[in-house]
Amino acid sequence: MNKSLFLLGGSAWINLVNTTYISEKQIIDILIEPSSTLQWLEENNLLRESDFLTLENEQLLNSLIIELRSLRNLIKMILDDLEQQGKLSLNVTEQLKRLTKQVKVSLTIDSESDKLKLVPEGITTRDHVLYMIIYSVIQTLDTIPTHRIRNCEHPECRLSFVDTSKSGKRRWCSMELCGNRQKAAEFYARKKKK
Ligand SMILES: [Zn+2]
């Protein structure tokens, strides 16, 4: 599996919605396999050391996968809202609030770098993963203009991304996946016309 795909959205919540994608006209779902889900979580830095141990328990991992799928649905609704009206609807905001209420965090002091940092972390693995993803939603909405949260322009691609480029003109989920194949298609289309 192409690991860059796990991260190309630019933020954990966008990367979560990108866990379903189209490859060679088939819909692939990263969250279908426990092993690829774990990889995805790891690549997105959503797990602490203790969480890796916790998720060795198959049952806990499976229930986390169910939570991730349902959060992914909510994120799809968030993206639809942004696309259609540039902001979140009341309904989606309420759902996000309801979910957030169930997430329990505690405060800890991170002393690994020179400075001490006060950081919230989830009580359980589930709390931690959900907290991190919800945090990423709020962080993006708070700091990035909504028109910079977009879909790849390739007609056969459904990946989303946060455009953090200077010019704000990013068109593709990635050059390797879509930019090049689109350019090749355009090239052949032009050639055919001649
Ligand atoms: Zn694409």
Structural commentary:
The chain has 194 residues and is of the alpha+beta class. It has one domain (3-93, 142-193). It contains seven helices and six strands, in the order αββααααββαββα. The protein has helices at residues 12-17, 34-43, 49-54, 58-85, 90-101, 125-143, 175-193; strands spanning 20-23, 26-29, 105-110, 117-122, 149-151, 160-162. A two-stranded antiparallel ribbon has the order 1-2. The chain is globular and about 65 Å long. The N and C termini lie far apart (39 Å). The model has no long low-confidence stretch (mean pLDDT 93). The structure holds zinc ion. Zinc ion (ZN) is lined by residues 152, 154, 157, 159, 172-173, 177-178.
Summarize this structure as a short list of keywords or feature phrases.
two-stranded antiparallel sheet; 7 helices; globular; binds zinc ion
Secondary-structure topology with pairs:
Layout: H1 12-17, E1 20-23, E2 26-29, H2 34-43, H3 49-54, H4 58-85, H5 90-101, E3 105-110, E4 117-122, H6 125-143, E5 149-151, E6 160-162, H7 175-193
Antiparallel strand pairs: 1-2, 3-4, 5-6
Bound molecules: zinc ion.
Provide a brief overview of the structure.
With 194 residues, this protein is an alpha+beta fold. Helix content is 52%, strand content 13%. The protein has one domain (3-93, 142-193).
